[in-house]
Amino acid sequence: MCISGYCFSSVLSVASVVEKLETRCVVVGGGPAGMMAGYLLARAGVDVAVLETHADFNRDFRGDTIHPSTLELMHELGLLDEFLKQPHQEVRELRGVINGQVVPIADFTKLPTRCKFIAFMPQWDFLNFLSSHAKRFPSFQLHVQTEVVDLLIENERVKGVRAKTPRAEIEMRADLVIGADGRHSTVHTRGGFERREFGVPIDVLWMRISKKKDDPEQSFGFFQHGKLLVLLDRGDYWQCGFVIPKGGFSEIKANGLAQFQNDIVSFAGFLRDRVDELDDWSKIKLLTVQINRLRDWCREGLLCIGDSAHAMSPAGGVGINLAIQDAVATANLLAEKLRNGPVSVADLRQVQLRREWPTQLIQGMQVFIHRHVVTGQASGRRNSLPFVLRMLKWFPILRQIPARFIGLGPRPEHFRSPSVGP
Fold first, then answer.
1. How many angstroms separate the CA atoms of 221 and 349, rounded?
2. What is residue 161's three-state secondary structure?
3. CA distances to 63, 208, 237, 238, 273 from 234, in Å
4. Is the N or the C terminus of the chain less surrounded, counting Cβ atoms within 10 Å?
5. H helices within 256-399, ranges in order?
6. How many whole angstroms separate alpha carbon 102 and alpha carbon 99?
7. Residue 267 pLDDT
8. pLDDT of residue 3 exceeding 70
Protein backbone atom coordinates (compact mmCIF):
# COMPACT_ATOMS: atom_id res chain seq x y z
CA MET A 1 0.00 0.00 0.00
CA CYS A 2 1.35 3.45 -0.95
CA ILE A 3 0.21 6.73 0.62
CA SER A 4 1.72 10.20 0.04
CA GLY A 5 5.06 8.97 -1.19
CA TYR A 6 5.33 6.08 1.28
CA CYS A 7 5.07 2.39 0.66
CA PHE A 8 4.13 0.27 3.68
CA SER A 9 4.18 -3.37 4.57
CA SER A 10 4.14 -5.13 7.91
CA VAL A 11 5.96 -8.27 8.92
CA LEU A 12 4.54 -10.03 12.00
CA SER A 13 7.01 -11.98 14.06
CA VAL A 14 6.77 -13.64 17.45
CA ALA A 15 8.95 -10.95 19.04
CA SER A 16 7.59 -7.77 17.47
CA VAL A 17 5.95 -6.03 14.54
CA VAL A 18 8.38 -4.56 12.02
CA GLU A 19 6.99 -1.93 9.69
CA LYS A 20 8.68 -1.61 6.31
CA LEU A 21 8.57 1.90 4.84
CA GLU A 22 10.10 3.53 1.80
CA THR A 23 10.62 7.17 0.94
CA ARG A 24 13.07 9.27 -1.02
CA CYS A 25 14.91 10.88 1.90
CA VAL A 26 15.09 10.20 5.64
CA VAL A 27 16.24 13.02 7.92
CA VAL A 28 17.33 11.79 11.35
CA GLY A 29 16.78 14.43 14.02
CA GLY A 30 14.21 17.21 14.35
CA GLY A 31 16.54 20.02 15.44
CA PRO A 32 17.26 23.19 13.43
CA ALA A 33 19.31 21.43 10.74
CA GLY A 34 16.96 18.46 10.39
CA MET A 35 13.72 20.43 10.39
CA MET A 36 15.00 23.05 7.95
CA ALA A 37 16.33 20.34 5.61
CA GLY A 38 13.02 18.48 5.80
CA TYR A 39 11.04 21.64 5.13
CA LEU A 40 13.14 22.73 2.15
CA LEU A 41 13.25 19.29 0.55
CA ALA A 42 9.47 18.88 0.90
CA ARG A 43 9.06 22.40 -0.51
CA ALA A 44 11.03 21.21 -3.55
CA GLY A 45 8.77 18.18 -4.02
CA VAL A 46 11.03 15.54 -2.46
CA ASP A 47 9.29 12.84 -0.41
CA VAL A 48 10.96 13.28 2.99
CA ALA A 49 10.46 11.89 6.49
CA VAL A 50 11.95 13.58 9.57
CA LEU A 51 12.46 11.16 12.46
CA GLU A 52 12.55 12.70 15.94
CA THR A 53 13.35 10.64 19.05
CA HIS A 54 11.21 12.67 21.45
CA ALA A 55 7.47 13.28 21.51
CA ASP A 56 7.94 17.05 21.07
CA PHE A 57 10.64 19.72 20.79
CA ASN A 58 10.54 20.88 24.43
CA ARG A 59 14.05 20.48 25.79
CA ASP A 60 15.91 22.81 28.15
CA PHE A 61 19.31 22.27 26.57
CA ARG A 62 18.57 24.10 23.32
CA GLY A 63 19.81 27.48 22.14
CA ASP A 64 17.41 30.38 21.68
CA THR A 65 19.20 32.56 19.15
CA ILE A 66 17.68 33.21 15.72
CA HIS A 67 20.37 35.10 13.84
CA PRO A 68 19.90 37.84 11.23
CA SER A 69 20.93 35.41 8.47
CA THR A 70 18.20 32.96 9.54
CA LEU A 71 15.66 35.80 9.70
CA GLU A 72 16.74 36.75 6.17
CA LEU A 73 16.06 33.18 5.06
CA MET A 74 12.60 33.36 6.66
CA HIS A 75 12.00 36.54 4.65
CA GLU A 76 13.10 34.82 1.44
CA LEU A 77 10.61 32.04 2.21
CA GLY A 78 7.81 34.54 2.74
CA LEU A 79 7.44 33.49 6.40
CA LEU A 80 9.08 36.38 8.23
CA ASP A 81 6.02 38.50 9.11
CA GLU A 82 4.19 35.51 10.55
CA PHE A 83 7.33 34.29 12.28
CA LEU A 84 7.93 37.57 14.08
CA LYS A 85 4.43 37.38 15.55
CA GLN A 86 5.75 34.58 17.77
CA PRO A 87 6.84 35.77 21.25
CA HIS A 88 10.48 36.84 21.08
CA GLN A 89 12.98 39.49 22.11
CA GLU A 90 15.05 41.55 19.69
CA VAL A 91 18.66 42.37 20.54
CA ARG A 92 20.39 44.89 18.27
CA GLU A 93 23.58 45.15 20.26
CA LEU A 94 25.31 42.29 22.02
CA ARG A 95 26.96 43.37 25.26
CA GLY A 96 28.76 41.64 28.07
CA VAL A 97 29.47 42.50 31.68
CA ILE A 98 33.14 41.53 31.89
CA ASN A 99 34.93 41.76 35.22
CA GLY A 100 32.32 44.33 36.25
CA GLN A 101 32.64 46.45 33.10
CA VAL A 102 29.89 46.76 30.47
CA VAL A 103 31.46 46.08 27.07
CA PRO A 104 29.60 46.43 23.73
CA ILE A 105 30.71 43.48 21.61
CA ALA A 106 28.61 43.37 18.42
CA ASP A 107 26.45 45.99 16.70
CA PHE A 108 23.92 44.36 14.37
CA THR A 109 22.28 47.59 13.20
CA LYS A 110 24.63 47.97 10.21
CA LEU A 111 24.13 44.47 8.79
CA PRO A 112 22.93 44.25 5.15
CA THR A 113 19.83 42.29 6.17
CA ARG A 114 16.14 43.03 6.57
CA CYS A 115 16.28 42.27 10.31
CA LYS A 116 19.20 43.95 12.02
CA PHE A 117 18.91 42.07 15.29
CA ILE A 118 19.15 38.66 16.92
CA ALA A 119 15.75 37.29 17.89
CA PHE A 120 15.71 35.38 21.17
CA MET A 121 12.99 32.75 20.92
CA PRO A 122 12.71 29.38 22.68
CA GLN A 123 13.95 26.86 20.14
CA TRP A 124 10.87 24.68 20.53
CA ASP A 125 8.75 27.60 19.29
CA PHE A 126 11.01 27.96 16.25
CA LEU A 127 10.84 24.24 15.50
CA ASN A 128 7.08 24.06 16.03
CA PHE A 129 6.65 26.99 13.63
CA LEU A 130 8.85 25.39 10.98
CA SER A 131 7.27 21.94 11.31
CA SER A 132 3.74 23.38 11.09
CA HIS A 133 4.63 24.93 7.73
CA ALA A 134 6.46 21.82 6.54
CA LYS A 135 3.34 19.73 7.18
CA ARG A 136 1.49 21.77 4.57
CA PHE A 137 3.49 19.99 1.89
CA PRO A 138 2.06 16.55 0.98
CA SER A 139 5.56 15.12 0.58
CA PHE A 140 6.53 15.86 4.22
CA GLN A 141 6.12 13.54 7.19
CA LEU A 142 7.25 14.06 10.81
CA HIS A 143 7.60 10.91 12.91
CA VAL A 144 7.97 11.65 16.63
CA GLN A 145 8.93 9.12 19.31
CA THR A 146 10.97 7.42 16.61
CA GLU A 147 14.49 6.57 17.75
CA VAL A 148 16.95 5.58 15.04
CA VAL A 149 19.12 2.74 16.34
CA ASP A 150 21.01 1.62 13.24
CA LEU A 151 21.62 2.13 9.55
CA LEU A 152 20.59 -0.25 6.78
CA ILE A 153 23.73 -0.89 4.72
CA GLU A 154 23.99 -3.01 1.60
CA ASN A 155 27.14 -3.35 -0.50
CA GLU A 156 28.75 -0.44 1.37
CA ARG A 157 25.84 1.88 0.54
CA VAL A 158 23.47 3.21 3.20
CA LYS A 159 19.94 2.22 2.19
CA GLY A 160 17.91 3.53 5.11
CA VAL A 161 17.53 3.30 8.88
CA ARG A 162 16.21 1.01 11.56
CA ALA A 163 14.22 2.71 14.32
CA LYS A 164 12.12 2.00 17.40
CA THR A 165 8.73 3.48 18.24
CA PRO A 166 6.40 2.79 21.21
CA ARG A 167 4.27 0.51 19.03
CA ALA A 168 6.70 -1.17 16.64
CA GLU A 169 10.10 -1.37 15.04
CA ILE A 170 10.58 0.38 11.72
CA GLU A 171 12.83 -0.22 8.74
CA MET A 172 12.66 2.85 6.53
CA ARG A 173 14.45 2.57 3.23
CA ALA A 174 15.49 5.69 1.34
CA ASP A 175 17.74 6.91 -1.45
CA LEU A 176 19.39 9.30 1.02
CA VAL A 177 19.78 9.41 4.80
CA ILE A 178 20.62 12.82 6.28
CA GLY A 179 22.11 12.63 9.77
CA ALA A 180 21.07 15.70 11.78
CA ASP A 181 20.86 13.99 15.16
CA GLY A 182 23.32 16.12 17.08
CA ARG A 183 26.73 15.73 18.64
CA HIS A 184 25.93 12.28 20.07
CA SER A 185 24.80 11.13 16.64
CA THR A 186 23.83 7.52 16.12
CA VAL A 187 24.07 8.14 12.39
CA HIS A 188 27.69 9.29 12.28
CA THR A 189 28.68 6.54 14.75
CA ARG A 190 26.99 3.76 12.74
CA GLY A 191 28.29 5.31 9.54
CA GLY A 192 31.86 4.71 10.71
CA PHE A 193 33.04 8.31 10.30
CA GLU A 194 36.30 9.54 11.78
CA ARG A 195 35.88 12.49 14.13
CA ARG A 196 38.53 15.09 14.98
CA GLU A 197 38.37 16.58 18.49
CA PHE A 198 39.54 20.08 19.43
CA GLY A 199 40.21 20.80 23.07
CA VAL A 200 37.67 23.04 24.81
CA PRO A 201 38.62 24.35 28.27
CA ILE A 202 35.04 24.84 29.52
CA ASP A 203 31.95 23.00 30.67
CA VAL A 204 28.45 24.37 31.33
CA LEU A 205 26.18 24.00 34.35
CA TRP A 206 22.50 24.30 33.35
CA MET A 207 19.71 25.25 35.78
CA ARG A 208 16.46 27.21 36.25
CA ILE A 209 15.81 30.24 38.44
CA SER A 210 12.44 31.99 38.60
CA LYS A 211 12.01 35.32 36.80
CA LYS A 212 10.35 38.52 38.05
CA LYS A 213 8.73 41.31 36.05
CA ASP A 214 11.32 43.91 37.06
CA ASP A 215 14.32 41.76 36.11
CA PRO A 216 16.59 43.28 33.43
CA GLU A 217 16.00 42.33 29.82
CA GLN A 218 17.95 39.50 28.27
CA SER A 219 20.90 41.19 26.62
CA PHE A 220 23.92 40.41 28.76
CA GLY A 221 26.40 37.67 29.32
CA PHE A 222 28.22 38.04 32.63
CA PHE A 223 31.95 37.22 32.38
CA GLN A 224 34.26 37.05 35.37
CA HIS A 225 37.73 35.48 35.65
CA GLY A 226 37.29 32.37 33.55
CA LYS A 227 33.57 31.95 34.28
CA LEU A 228 30.48 33.09 32.43
CA LEU A 229 26.80 33.30 33.31
CA VAL A 230 24.19 33.46 30.52
CA LEU A 231 20.49 33.98 31.26
CA LEU A 232 17.90 32.87 28.68
CA ASP A 233 14.40 34.30 29.13
CA ARG A 234 11.83 31.46 29.26
CA GLY A 235 8.93 33.72 30.25
CA ASP A 236 8.40 32.89 33.93
CA TYR A 237 11.92 31.62 34.60
CA TRP A 238 15.54 32.12 33.59
CA GLN A 239 17.33 29.23 31.96
CA CYS A 240 20.82 29.75 33.35
CA GLY A 241 24.02 28.57 31.74
CA PHE A 242 27.02 28.84 34.07
CA VAL A 243 30.31 28.34 32.22
CA ILE A 244 33.16 26.92 34.28
CA PRO A 245 36.67 25.63 33.57
CA LYS A 246 36.51 22.10 32.20
CA GLY A 247 36.52 19.49 34.94
CA GLY A 248 35.73 22.10 37.59
CA PHE A 249 32.31 20.78 38.66
CA SER A 250 33.74 18.43 41.29
CA GLU A 251 35.53 21.32 43.00
CA ILE A 252 32.36 23.44 42.86
CA LYS A 253 30.34 20.65 44.49
CA ALA A 254 33.02 20.18 47.14
CA ASN A 255 32.72 23.88 48.05
CA GLY A 256 29.01 23.42 48.71
CA LEU A 257 25.72 24.77 47.42
CA ALA A 258 25.92 27.97 49.47
CA GLN A 259 29.18 28.95 47.78
CA PHE A 260 27.74 28.12 44.37
CA GLN A 261 24.69 30.29 45.09
CA ASN A 262 27.03 33.12 46.07
CA ASP A 263 28.93 32.66 42.81
CA ILE A 264 25.68 33.12 40.84
CA VAL A 265 24.81 36.26 42.84
CA SER A 266 28.31 37.67 42.25
CA PHE A 267 27.45 37.74 38.53
CA ALA A 268 23.79 38.76 38.68
CA GLY A 269 22.94 40.45 41.98
CA PHE A 270 19.22 40.74 41.13
CA LEU A 271 18.94 36.95 41.62
CA ARG A 272 19.92 37.21 45.30
CA ASP A 273 16.34 36.82 46.61
CA ARG A 274 15.70 33.53 44.77
CA VAL A 275 19.03 31.82 44.18
CA ASP A 276 18.19 29.50 47.10
CA GLU A 277 15.80 27.75 44.69
CA LEU A 278 18.95 25.83 43.75
CA ASP A 279 18.74 23.78 46.93
CA ASP A 280 19.88 20.43 45.54
CA TRP A 281 22.63 19.41 43.11
CA SER A 282 20.03 17.40 41.16
CA LYS A 283 18.69 20.76 39.90
CA ILE A 284 22.06 21.59 38.35
CA LYS A 285 23.00 19.65 35.22
CA LEU A 286 26.49 19.32 33.77
CA LEU A 287 26.81 19.71 30.01
CA THR A 288 30.21 18.81 28.60
CA VAL A 289 31.18 21.25 25.85
CA GLN A 290 32.75 19.85 22.69
CA ILE A 291 34.22 21.23 19.51
CA ASN A 292 34.75 18.57 16.88
CA ARG A 293 34.03 17.74 13.26
CA LEU A 294 34.00 14.75 10.97
CA ARG A 295 36.86 14.30 8.54
CA ASP A 296 34.32 13.13 5.94
CA TRP A 297 30.67 14.16 6.18
CA CYS A 298 29.32 11.61 3.72
CA ARG A 299 29.47 8.19 2.19
CA GLU A 300 27.25 6.49 -0.40
CA GLY A 301 23.64 7.14 0.62
CA LEU A 302 24.47 9.15 3.77
CA LEU A 303 25.21 12.80 4.58
CA CYS A 304 25.76 14.37 8.01
CA ILE A 305 25.02 18.04 8.69
CA GLY A 306 24.76 20.35 11.71
CA ASP A 307 26.09 19.12 15.03
CA SER A 308 26.20 15.58 13.66
CA ALA A 309 28.99 16.75 11.33
CA HIS A 310 30.53 19.43 13.55
CA ALA A 311 29.78 20.01 17.23
CA MET A 312 30.16 23.64 18.26
CA SER A 313 30.66 25.49 21.51
CA PRO A 314 27.65 27.55 22.67
CA ALA A 315 29.78 30.71 22.30
CA GLY A 316 27.77 33.28 20.34
CA GLY A 317 24.99 30.78 19.62
CA VAL A 318 26.54 30.36 16.18
CA GLY A 319 26.08 26.58 16.07
CA ILE A 320 22.36 27.00 15.32
CA ASN A 321 23.11 29.46 12.53
CA LEU A 322 25.70 27.12 11.03
CA ALA A 323 23.38 24.10 11.21
CA ILE A 324 20.58 25.95 9.41
CA GLN A 325 22.96 27.10 6.69
CA ASP A 326 24.12 23.49 6.25
CA ALA A 327 20.49 22.55 5.64
CA VAL A 328 20.01 25.33 3.10
CA ALA A 329 23.15 24.31 1.20
CA THR A 330 21.97 20.69 1.26
CA ALA A 331 18.63 21.60 -0.31
CA ASN A 332 20.22 23.98 -2.83
CA LEU A 333 22.67 21.36 -4.06
CA LEU A 334 20.64 18.16 -3.81
CA ALA A 335 16.89 18.81 -3.99
CA GLU A 336 16.41 18.80 -7.75
CA LYS A 337 18.56 15.70 -8.27
CA LEU A 338 17.04 13.90 -5.29
CA ARG A 339 13.51 14.54 -6.52
CA ASN A 340 14.30 12.43 -9.58
CA GLY A 341 16.34 9.65 -7.99
CA PRO A 342 19.40 8.78 -5.89
CA VAL A 343 22.31 11.19 -5.56
CA SER A 344 25.94 10.16 -5.86
CA VAL A 345 28.60 10.49 -3.19
CA ALA A 346 30.19 13.13 -5.43
CA ASP A 347 26.97 15.14 -5.11
CA LEU A 348 27.06 14.76 -1.32
CA ARG A 349 30.68 15.90 -1.17
CA GLN A 350 29.63 19.20 -2.71
CA VAL A 351 27.78 19.99 0.51
CA GLN A 352 30.89 19.38 2.59
CA LEU A 353 33.05 21.36 0.17
CA ARG A 354 30.74 24.34 0.49
CA ARG A 355 30.20 24.24 4.24
CA GLU A 356 33.50 22.93 5.61
CA TRP A 357 35.64 26.07 5.51
CA PRO A 358 33.02 28.23 7.29
CA THR A 359 32.90 25.52 9.94
CA GLN A 360 36.68 25.45 10.29
CA LEU A 361 36.83 29.23 10.59
CA ILE A 362 34.09 29.43 13.24
CA GLN A 363 35.48 26.55 15.28
CA GLY A 364 38.97 28.09 15.15
CA MET A 365 37.57 31.38 16.42
CA GLN A 366 35.64 29.62 19.20
CA VAL A 367 38.78 27.83 20.37
CA PHE A 368 40.64 31.17 20.40
CA ILE A 369 37.86 32.88 22.39
CA HIS A 370 37.76 30.14 24.99
CA ARG A 371 41.52 30.05 25.46
CA HIS A 372 42.33 33.76 25.32
CA VAL A 373 39.17 35.73 26.15
CA VAL A 374 37.09 33.68 28.60
CA THR A 375 39.39 31.41 30.61
CA GLY A 376 42.34 33.66 29.79
CA GLN A 377 40.92 36.32 32.10
CA ALA A 378 41.73 34.27 35.17
CA SER A 379 45.40 35.22 34.97
CA GLY A 380 44.80 38.96 34.47
CA ARG A 381 44.15 41.76 36.96
CA ARG A 382 40.80 41.64 38.70
CA ASN A 383 39.21 44.45 36.70
CA SER A 384 41.24 44.07 33.51
CA LEU A 385 39.83 43.51 30.02
CA PRO A 386 41.50 41.45 27.29
CA PHE A 387 43.04 43.66 24.62
CA VAL A 388 40.50 42.61 21.96
CA LEU A 389 37.59 43.68 24.18
CA ARG A 390 39.26 46.98 25.02
CA MET A 391 39.50 47.70 21.29
CA LEU A 392 35.77 46.99 20.87
CA LYS A 393 34.99 49.36 23.73
CA TRP A 394 37.17 52.17 22.38
CA PHE A 395 36.34 51.91 18.64
CA PRO A 396 32.61 51.36 17.92
CA ILE A 397 33.20 50.65 14.21
CA LEU A 398 35.05 47.45 15.16
CA ARG A 399 31.83 46.04 16.61
CA GLN A 400 30.58 45.46 13.07
CA ILE A 401 33.19 42.70 12.65
CA PRO A 402 31.85 40.34 15.36
CA ALA A 403 28.33 41.37 14.28
CA ARG A 404 28.92 39.98 10.80
CA PHE A 405 30.72 36.93 12.14
CA ILE A 406 27.98 36.11 14.66
CA GLY A 407 24.95 37.42 12.78
CA LEU A 408 25.73 36.21 9.26
CA GLY A 409 28.63 33.78 9.42
CA PRO A 410 31.53 33.51 6.96
CA ARG A 411 29.36 32.19 4.11
CA PRO A 412 25.65 32.97 4.56
CA GLU A 413 23.40 30.82 2.41
CA HIS A 414 20.37 31.93 0.37
CA PHE A 415 17.64 29.73 -1.01
CA ARG A 416 18.35 28.34 -4.45
CA SER A 417 16.31 25.14 -4.20
CA PRO A 418 13.19 24.84 -6.37
CA SER A 419 9.67 25.11 -4.98
CA VAL A 420 6.65 23.12 -6.09
CA GLY A 421 4.27 24.91 -3.71
CA PRO A 422 2.04 23.34 -1.03
1. 38
2. strand
3. 11, 9, 5, 6, 19
4. N
5. 257-267, 318-340, 345-369, 387-394
6. 9
7. 87
8. no
Residue range 371-410, pLDDT digits in tens? 765 555 444 455 567 777 788 888 889 999 989 989 999 9
- Residue 313 phi, psi dihedral angles, 5° rounding: -75, 155
* pLDDT interval class at 102 (50, 70, 90): confident
CATH code 3.50.50.60 for 2-64+121-196+293-374+394-407? yes
- CA-based torsion, 29, 31, 32, 35: positive or negative: positive
pLDDT tens digit string along 204-253?
899 999 999 888 876 567 877 666 888 877 778 888 889 888 888 999 99
Helix (H, G, I), strand (E, B) or coil at 236: coil
Instruction: Find the farthest-apart pair of alpha carbons in the chain and give their distance in angstroms, rounded.
Output: 73
Give 89: exposed, middle or buried? Use CB within 10 Å, 0-12, 13-18, 19+: middle
Query: Domain ranges in the chain?
Result: 2-64+121-196+293-374+394-407, 202-288
Q: Which residues contact 157 (CB under 8 A, 6 or more apart)?
A: 299, 300, 301
DSSP state of 390: H
